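Justification of resources, computational component.

The compute hours requested in this renewal are based largely on the per-chain cost of generating structure records like the one below. Each record pairs the submitted sequence with a full structure-token output. That output is archived, and it is also reused by downstream analysis tasks.
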Amino acid sequence: MDWIRLTKSAKDLTGLKGSLIEVTEEELKKHNKKDDCWICIRGCVYNVSPYMEYHPGGQDELMKAAGSDGTDLFDQVHRWVNYESMLKECMVGRMAVKPAVPKDYREEKKVLNGMLPKSQLTDTLAKEGPISPSYDWFQTDSLVTIVKYIKQKDISLHSVIVDHQYDFFRAETIFKDYSYLIHIGLSHEVQEDFSVRVVENVGKIEIALKKKESTSWECLGHPLENHNSLIPKKDTGLYYRKCQLISKEVVTHDTKLLCLMLPPSTHLQVPIGQHVYLKLTIAGTEIVKPYTPVSESLLSDCKEPVLSNHKYIYFLIKIYPAGLFTPQLDRLQIGDFVSISNPAGNFKISQFQELEDLFLLAAGTGFTPMVRILKYALTKISSLRKAKLMFFNKTEDDIIWRSQLEKSACKDKRFDVEFVLSAPTSEWNGKRGHISPSLLSEFLKRSFDKSRILICICGPTPFTEQGLRLLHDLNFSKDEIHSFTA
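The structure output for this chain reads:
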């Protein structure tokens, strides 16, 4: 909190007396010392010298990115940290980016209703990236339909994220590790209600907006920041929308199931195995934490409300009494709001292709990504022979959804669950201890010698790191393992 007090002290932390500048690569490289250290994160340049002594990871970690673009390093260590809020008083300016046009780009910029008809790609994307997407629009008396042509066959409703309100419109499409963004200030206001349709075999997306007034639009609108851009997904910032707390249910002595409702003007379906970031303002500072959405229940006969239309997102949250974020989350009342980001993560549904054996290793709330993975595997993967979960906890009281797991195992003979406790009572008859070679070698038995398997592991960092070492020692390949680390 000392750093927060310093940022609120009105002291000039940039060294530029409040002015913002455009920073060239040459200028950025000059500021590479501890007492004069500039770092670029997603196009914004910060003077982090005043932050050196407050950085939890030490000065040496910050110096790794001194005088350069630290985006990749930042994402590897703590992408979930809200650096914009934390370092806003240190912002020097933005990188001065030279216009980057593909070498084979010959045609002039034709304006279509004030919009560029095609993405302007960097040389790198033109050479290595996917086919350039584009968009168009048409209208009727009551509707305006924006059509995105992605030209990829693996597009689904999970690939599309739409937010709009009044005359603001934002539609992002994720495909092949890229993000294609349409970001427009609409020429007229539209209603909250809208629809999204995906034609999967051709990669076409239709977003139908309802006009507030039945008038003819002369143009779609004007471009906003990063409109019509195609960039690597890892370089995109986190975009948030406010969601309303609908319900809060006790699951264990320290874990609760929260249901949040997306605004009616948002389309967002979090892909299986991916997480989002929840954001709250605490003591005047924005705090962000990653969480993986779960299903409302593991049991197939307990379905989400018929009218939800994917508007509800569920989270299993462990409350840490001495923590900063979760007690504040727990204090929220029904009807209060929490900001939720776009999805993040590198798990791909293609890892399930022709899968025969699925092994899940979870510790504590590391169980959360396994919920939707398990439901999907048991209901959608026809080649699946067995799915097994080894669930590590301290005590019986800590086991999340124990009854549901046991009922699921009784209903589907392909599924089996084993509980391992590190601090059980004397009455416990199950497995005891921590993750170990003996536990794993007994648990990870294939259906047959060359069966196609996937092992997913998630939990506290020491658990996951130890588990990965043991899996390597047991000669499982990297392609057979997926570790969840937020």
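The chain has eleven helices and 28 strands. Confidence is low (pLDDT under 50) at residues 98-129, 302-307.
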